Amino acid sequence: MKGCMGCIVFTSSTILFLKPLAEWYISASQNFLHKVAMDIISQLQEQVNLIAHLAFNTIGTLQRDAPPNRLSPNYPEPPAHPTEEGTNFSEQPKLMSSTLVKAAKQFDALVAALPISESGEEAQLKRITELQAENDAIGQELQKQLEAAEKELNQVQELFSQASDNCLNLKKPDDN
User: Where, if anywhere, are coiled coils annotated (predicted)?
Assistant: First the structure.
């Protein structure tokens, strides 16, 4: 390998070291993808909370910064709205509305990422009925196993009681 600058030479010990690392990386990647797929509902909930927060703040800011208007010609002119020097209030609603739109688009993207049901409502109801029947059958089997285990426990307790009684009867009294 002379003259091979920058070449990587793998030895058997290097491969033995890298194999578990590669397996861990693949496993971690698969777990991450599984969590991402399973966590879309949580992400949707967080996004709804963010949209509500942004909407609340946007409306509050618009109310706070809006110039006062005369309600009726019968009322006097409202006092001038105090403004700070150098503050540009016209940009803030644009920025807040664009942030709100981005959050709504992110919500739409998350909704689009939800798995689509291949079957209609009738097929889903049929599947639910099948799963409930399977659950009932497994529940009955578990109940039978529980009853058998309780019966066996009672037998063991009875045998233990008999064995302890026999041990007490076999014990010789101490002659003091």
Answer: 128-166
Q: What distance in Å separates the CA atoms of residue 176 and residue 53, rounded to the nearest whole number?
A: 87
Report H helices in the chain: 12-38, 40-65, 91-113, 121-170
Average pLDDT over residues 19-41: 58
Rounded distance between C-alpha atoms, residue 33 and residue 115, angstroms: 14
For 43-68, what is each residue's pLDDT tens digit? 899 999 999 999 998 898 888 887 77
Distances (CA, A) of 176 to 82, 87, 168, 169, 171: 107, 105, 18, 19, 15
* CB proximity list for 115: less than 8 A, separation 6 or greater: none
Residue 117 DSSP symbol: P
Under 8 Å between Cβ of 107 and 51: yes
**CB-based contacts of 137, cutoff 8 Å, min separation 6:** none
Indicate the pTM of the whole model: 0.45
- Angle value at C-alpha 116, between 132 and 103, nearest 5 degrees: 120
Burial (CB count within 10 angstroms: exposed 0-12, middle 13-18, buried 19+), residue 127 = exposed
Contact 58, 97 (CB under 8 A): yes
Tokens 């016209």 -> residue: 90
